[in-house]
Design goal:
Radius of gyration: 38 Å
Low-confidence stretches: 72-81, 95-112, 428-433
Strand content: 25-35%
Shape: elongated
Length: 473
């Protein structure tokens, strides 16, 4: 910063301004400002100074010039002329006799000269920086215009988010034209009356420089919709607070999930109750009849009813696992394998279990790993001969852990594994074993792992690849 009098003489210079010239601030005082302006630039600078002096208000003006050490270079420093310098001039504000501070606690006499002008250097970005900023701006504009989500740029004015710009995605999602909403309060257009308090809280957080993230209901030109909302605050350095609002329409997903949950619960409840009645009646028929054909038919009814009940139970287990929104926890895969296998040794006495496990293998999946592994082992036991051999191998790989469950049975029917592992049409799923495999897939993939199936040399293998959780990743 510096101050010049009516004659254009520097009467005060800050150390920062002197640094542009490689000089000491004291060496600049009392010298004409024209001594430090590059050749040919002084007329523009003088014109800007005169315009500021003639202005009736407090408006500041800028002009571009080069600063140099002047004719007496060593006296004021050895700095060469600097390109890309912009000087900003404003009317001197110390004319009330109180003096003018330079920001470092120094004050100098303001005197009574109303034609004094305050100047400051506004350094422009270097050419590479300018080019980079232009590139980043172009990339942002491209993203802003082409993203399908609704994006709004706004300024917090008082307590209102005033719209400054919207992208085409906003117009198509909310149904309002950009010209209609620009300059207006965003809340007046998209916030339902019963969500006013929520919106005010979000706006206050934006004003405080805090981000927002929530699932919200908003009003569109066609009615209410549900959105995943992200609010991102930013500042331009002008003392004002701005932000971006991004709205992703999730109405269809939310409604589909709700419909599925209702249908699933009603179906499971009714299926279980009705099948229990059918099973009971089948047993009564078997006890009351002496006809072998009737007894055989009742036995088949009972067997198929029990199968449906097992499917219903698997559906209930699958729903419980998938509805568990707790974050993943560290569990010991070795302990989990043993906990799954031990009770099944008693239930399947003819089966052979061959375990190859490390002393410990911590993985990041959480308690749901037991449910996934149980489904794999159950498939290996229930759909194979009684004397099946089940091999379970766990080992540490470079960045992951693998659990391999193999059996020497007939293998998983293609109609089951193709839908789960080969992206075949999901409508081909027809057996309860397929539902168990889906649970395995969902549990493992939700933890960042993957599931693979292989049939080779008379052995079927389901491999679970899981993230290690001991700092090895």
């Amino acid at each position: 910063m510096f101050v010049v009098d009516a004659a254009g003489t520097v009467i005060h210079a800050s150390d920062e301004f002197a640094a542009h010239l490689g000089a000491d601030a004291a060496a600049l005082r009392g010298r004409p400002l024209s001594d430090f302006v590059g050749d040919g630039d002084w007329p523009d600078v003088r014109g800007t100074l005169d315009a500021v002096r003639r202005a009736s208000g407090w408006e500041s003006l800028r002009c571009r010039c080069r600063l140099s050490a002047g004719d007496d270079g060593p006296a004021v420093g050895d700095a060469p002329a600097e390109p890309d310098i912009e000087l900003e001039f404003a009317p001197y504000r110390g004319g009330d006799g109180g003096g003018y501070g330079d920001g470092d606690g120094d004050r100098f006499d303001s005197g009574s000269d109303a034609n004094r002008v305050v100047g400051a250097v506004c350094r422009e970005p270097s050419e590479p920086t300018t080019a980079r900023l232009h590139t980043e701006r172009d990339r942002f504009d491209h993203l802003f215009d082409l993203i399908d989500d609704a994006v709004i740029e706004f300024e917090i004015v008082g307590i209102e988010p005033v719209v400054r710009a919207v992208n085409p995605g906003f117009e198509s999602v909310f149904g309002y034209d950009a010209d209609e909403i620009r300059g207006e309060s965003l809340n007046d257009f998209i916030v339902p009356p019963d969500a006013d308090d929520e919106a005010v809280d979000f706006d206050q957080r934006t004003a405080d420089g805090k981000a927002n993230h929530a699932v919200v209901t908003r009003q569109t030109a066609w009615g209410r919709r549900e959105f995943l909302y992200r609010g991102i605050p930013y500042s331009r350095g002008d003392g004002k607070q701005y932000g971006f609002s991004i709205y992703s329409d999730i109405t269809s997903q939310r409604r589909a999930r709700e419909h599925l949950q209702v249908l699933q619960r009603v179906l499971r409840h009714n299926l279980r109750n009705e099948m229990n009645v059918v099973l009971g009646m089948a047993e009564e028929i078997r006890e009351a009849t002496a006809d072998s054909h009737v007894d055989h038919a009742a036995a088949r009814i009972a067997a198929h009813t029990e199968t449906l009940l097992r499917v219903s139970e698997k559906a209930r287990t699958a729903a419980a696992v998938l509805d568990d929104q707790r974050p993943d926890e560290v569990v010991d895969a070795t302990e989990t394998v043993r906990a799954v296998v031990e009770p099944r040794r008693t239930r399947f006495p003819a089966a052979t279990f061959d375990l190859d496990l490390p002393p410990s293998l911590p993985v990041s999946v959480g308690p749901k790993l037991a449910q996934a592994l149980a489904n794999v082992v159950e498939n290996a036991l229930e759909h194979t001969p009684e004397d099946v051999t089940v091999r379970i191998e766990a080992k540490r790989c470079e960045n992951d852990a693998t659990l391999r469950v193999s059996d020497d049975g007939d293998g998983i029917p293609e109609i089951e594994w193709a839908a789960v592992f080969a992206d075949e049409d999901i409508t081909q799923l027809s057996h309860g074993s397929g539902l168990g495999l889906w649970v395995v897939k969902w549990v493992v993939e939700s933890a960042g792992g993957r599931v693979d199936y292989d049939r080779r040399n008379g052995w079927s293998t389901v491999q679970l690849t899981l993230p290690l959780a001991d700092g090895s990743r």
